[in-house]
Amino acid sequence: MKPKAKILIIAGSDSSGGAGIQADIKTVSALGGYAMTAVTAITAQNTTGVKSIVAIPPKEIANQIMFTANDIKPDAIKIGMLHSVEVIKQVISCLKKIKTKHVILDPVMVAKGGAKLINNKAIQFLEKQMIKHAYLITPNIPEAEVLSNMKINTPEDMIYAGSILINKGATNVLIKGGHLKGSFVRDVLINKKEIKVFKNKKINSKNTHGTGCTLSSAITTYLACGKTINKACELGIKYVNQAIGSKINYGKGHGPINHLTSVSINKEFK
Q1: Which of 40, 208, 214, 221 is catalytic?
Q2: Tens-place pLDDT, residues 135-174
Q3: Edge-to-edge strands of the sheet including 76-79?
Q4: The dihedral of CA 19, 34, 107, 201: what is its sign?
Q5: Tens digits of per-residue pLDDT, 13-61?
Q6: Is 162 in the active site?
Q7: Which of 47, 135, 184, 186 has the fewest CB within 10 Å, making it most exposed?
Q8: Predicted pLDDT of residue 159
Q9: Helix (H/G/I), strand (E/B), else coil: 43
Q10: Percent of the chain at pLDDT above 70?
Q11: Domain extent listing, the chain
């Protein structure tokens, strides 16, 4: 099968394979895309937590991005962990040169086990400078709380936080509602034209490591294949829910999801 789209992934490595650039590559490939990468950091981690993080020098991150994109121009770009202000500056500079419309930013800040992945200055710079360069940002509730500087306890709070991020320069915001209590998960897509709520039954599973990385990469792939923002989010959420529901049960902590679930369901997405 010939790949449907070319995706450049800028993110950190997860040695356990459940999240980070490994989850991104699996997702893009499973959904029919061609994955290219620029590694921003190397983490030693497993399903129970993060042992260590080694940052890649900002200039080397830029070298990976530009040397790859100058040869194979990406149809879309997915961005994950950006650990410092200098890294963010380099990525913004690269984005201006590549000029790809669909840039999806997953503002990764904290690992599933609770380990902090980027510093406070980077968070502030990401909020003030990075989000305006993205077509879509996909924060979960803790990340949206940091970026909007407000507590989120209800779906209405999610909408208000999203509107704050739109006012800060974001084009589209998808706030993921999995952290809220209840039997249903509501993910909220917000832009200046509309508010769209995706409501799905919550799947009870501790194996949710890498769901954020997976969702943003799935949406990126669908956008690169020509889907609208609403449809790309809908299909991305469906893919992640299928992957969680397969319950492969690897590891002693927050286990990974099954990225290969799309092999059997991808026909439904055409």
Answers
A1: 208
A2: 999 999 999 999 999 999 999 999 999 999 999 999 999 9
A3: 49-55, 33-46, 5-14, 76-79, 103-105, 136-137, 173-175, 184-190, 195-201
A4: negative
A5: 999 999 999 999 999 999 999 999 999 999 999 999 889 999 999 999 9
A6: no
A7: 184
A8: 97
A9: strand
A10: 94
A11: 5-265
The residues, any chain, with a CB within 8 Å of residue 92's CB and separated by 6 or more, are 129, 130, 133
DSSP state of 83: -
Residue 244 carries which DSSP code? H
Q: Annotated catalytic, 225?
A: no
Place of tokens 């993921």: 176
* Domain 5-265, CATH number (from 3.30.300.30, 3.40.1190.20, 3.40.1710.10, 3.100.10.10): 3.40.1190.20
- CB 83, CB 122: distance < 8 Å: yes
Asked about 20 being catalytic, the answer comes back as no
CB-hemisphere CA count at 13 Å for 46?
5
Which pLDDT score, from 0 to 100, does residue 76 have?
98
State yes or no: is 100 an active-site residue. Answer: no
Which residues on neighbouring strands pair with residue 11, listed in sequence order? 39
Q: Which of 6, 176, 221, 225 is catalytic?
A: 176
SS3 136: strand
